[in-house]
């Protein structure tokens, strides 16, 4: 055979191998790698509300049949559905719908018994109304608006495609915190827009051709912005946004070139973060897990996830009882509250303390300057006010946490402080 023919044959062979290999390679092959995630979800004493919904959704998508764990989550969600739907934010309700409805399981009926889709339609409308009256600021944020559209789209709720087109333009300020594009938000929007696009193309939902083109263009631009946030080690955004960014890239492969994203590299970076113990709260573990097994939130209404394999080794380890040493070594940090002026104090806390412990200690030292309030969120405590000054979604203001002048990628209840560190809570806009 002539050499040029041989070459083209080899090329053809390689070309036909690449797509299938890419699909196969980019999934964890060693199931033990994800055990730390499963253990975090299993051993957590308190998996409340939104966290429970995230965990249930994740377990169902990857086909983990552990009935004890599932029942625990369903019980928690059932309690909320029966007693407190009106207190939920739109995105919290959307997640609950996704979790209950995922993979055609018996608890799906709760969605219809408690009219959760109607409730979500109303909450989504309230978000839009708030945007109309408060300079385009929703009640919550675009991550939640995307969850709303995703749940309405997957569970045949009513939403207006024109409204989606009007709101989800990638240049909208709500995709940004300060000058930074939020990968989590962009990724969730790509999932929502992909669902809407699929409904339009399948003829399930009627729309004019212009809407379809716009949604495609939005998706392409969001995917570009997500890929721009790819770090040298493969993470996209940061540790906690990478799983959702992977989901977005799985469903939008028509919009980028194979050479633009090395999925295996990203997967390895996540595995590295798992081994470092980075996903040590249930919601963090739950959000990253589906992508590691090649699943996305768009698989929620596929029948296939019902017969998931249960070959995961989820042995429940004996709880480790740590007896604290008699006298824990203490460390000292500099803590500041910055509004226009900066108020500082030197604070001593036990070694291994989190940011919140520093804030509490400072509050004891000087209540007027360092008093603060917080509220429990699925990611742990969220600081709502300092010195009586309250964060507000309508004004896009919040208390930003920083160390050495750099924003932290963990909340006050998770970030472990170090000796000599310069910690700050700063009155900021996003
Ligand atoms: N979820 C939500 O509504 C939250 C959406 C989210 C994009 C979220 C990150 C992503 C996710 N996967 O859940 C988000 N954060 C938002 C929208 C916000 C804003 C909340 C205000 C609003 N109107 O909704 C805001 C104010 C910009 C914000 N996050 C602030 C902060 C800081 C909190 C400080 C405080 N006052 O307590 C902080 C700590 C950043 C900082 N340096 O100040 C912060 N967020 C962080 C670190 C995070 C990550 C948490 C990671 C972790 N291990 O704790 C995050 C995953 C998340 C939660 N925020 Co916000 C983003 C990341 O790092 N990848 C839906 C609902 C149903 O659950």
UniProtKB/TrEMBL annotation:
Cyanocob(III)alamin binds at residues 140-144, 184, 238, 287, 382-383, 399-401, 408, 430. Pfam families: Cobalamin_bind, DUF4430. One of its GO terms (molecular function) is cobalamin binding. PROSITE patterns: COBALAMIN_BINDING. Disulfide bonds join 26-263, 153-195. It is found in: Secreted. InterPro entries: Cbl-bd_prot (IPR002157), Cobalamin_Transport (IPR051588), Transcobalamin-like_C (IPR027954). Keywords: Cobalt, Cobalt transport, Disulfide bond, Ion transport, Secreted, Signal, Transport. This is Transcobalamin 1. The keyword Transport applies. Belongs to the eukaryotic cobalamin transport proteins family. Residues 1-23 form the signal peptide. GO terms for cellular component: extracellular space. Residues 352-428 form the Transcobalamin-like C-terminal domain. GO terms for biological process: cobalamin transport; cobalt ion transport. Its main location: secreted.
